[in-house]
Amino acid sequence: MPATRGRAASQPKPKADAYVGLLIISLLAMIAACVLLFLDYNEYPETAKAKSAIQQAGTRPAPQPPAGGGAGGAPPGGMGGAPPGGMMGGAPPGGMGGAPPGGMMGGAPPGAMMGKGGVPK
């Protein structure tokens, strides 16, 4: 029985095309961006980094208004002027979901505009 060749030996190796070049360019751009980010990050002094972390840990959250609403201010549900759902009353722009009246075919069933023998009326 003769020796069979493997698949790798029978097919030529694929050549690099324009997409491989684009991959190399994007890889170089990503490496350059990481280097520039690192250089920009190192321009900040170490004391500012540590001080901002300490300030963030020592801050208190802002006081929240009472859960029941309160005596003054805007009514619950918004700023008071616009109805719920916007000025259009909740309808989406362009009508009811964007479909024309009668469905996507314009209202006529398929073949309704055809005469005898499939000729248009």
How would you characterize the overall build of this protein?
With 121 residues, the protein is mainly alpha-helical. It has helices spanning 7-10, 18-42, 46-58. The N and C termini lie far apart (73 Å).
Major sheet: none
What is the string of SSEs from the N terminus onward? HHH
Coarse morphology: flat
Helix tally equals 3
Rg, alpha carbons:
34 Å
Q: Kindly state the mean pLDDT as a whole number?
A: 72
Distance between the termini: 73 Å
Short description:
Helix content is 35%, strand content 0%. With 121 residues, the protein is mainly alpha-helical.
SSE diagram, text form:
Blueprint: H1 7-10, H2 18-42, H3 46-58
Please name the defining characteristics of this protein.
121 residues, mainly alpha, 3 helices
